[in-house]
Amino acid sequence: MPPTAADLIRELPLGPLVDHHAFALTAREEPLVWARKMVRRVLTGRTDQGRIDDAVLVVIELLTNAIRHAGGPVCLTLDLYEKGVIVGVVDRGRDTTAIPTAPDSLLAGLQDEVSATTGGADLSESGRGLFLVDAFANGWGVDPAHEGKVVTAAFCLAGSAA
Q1: Is the pLDDT of residue 90 over 80?
Q2: What is the distance between the alpha carbons of residues 12 and 155, in angstroms, rounded to a whole number?
Q3: What is the pTM assigned to this prediction?
Q4: What is the DSSP string of 72-110?
């Protein structure tokens, strides 16, 4: 089972909380476009471009999962710490059991199987969201929330403003 957001904060060297942002998403027409811009805006100047790109990718994956599987996103949170950020997507889903296992070996095995049966065609672009979250974030977790659940991902940020 992945750690809770509180576990992530204790386990990672994030430092003290310096800012908190919470954005309602239920009325946004294009939440993915808006979220990309907002995450970039909030993190610019706090870390390098590569780490900002990682955080944007993870937020988009979490929002896409909320749209596809959990009745849509309710809220996006960005908790800025002295040396990191925790992003959270609150959605209407209640299932907290979707946990990726052995992503590298599973994906490698699937790619081999697809290549053997399709002459090398690529895997579908869907179904790997939590594998990406697991690969790009320093940690992630799922917690029940009043509205459903919140999926959080933590990032240690190189070059964070102290």
Answers
A1: yes
A2: 9
A3: 0.78
A4: -EEEEEEEEETTEEEEEEEES---------SHHHHHHHH
- Cα–Cα distance measured from residue 29 to residue 64, given in angstroms and rounded to the nearest whole number: 14
- Diameter of the chain measured on Cα atoms: 52
Q: Is there a contact between 14 and 84 (Cβ–Cβ < 8 Å)?
A: yes
Q: What is the pLDDT of residue 98?
A: 60
Give the list of residues 6+ apart from residue 38 with CB closer than 8 angstroms, or none.
Answer: 21, 23, 76, 78
What distance in Å separates the CA atoms of residue 63 and residue 66, rounded to the nearest whole number? 5
Q: Which residue has the higher pLDDT, 1 or 9?
A: 9
Q: Please tell me the predicted confidence (pLDDT) of residue 2.
A: 62
User: What tokens does 108 get?
Assistant: 């490698």
Spell out where the chain has E strands: 17-24, 73-81, 84-91, 139-145, 148-156
- Three-state secondary structure call for residue 66: helix
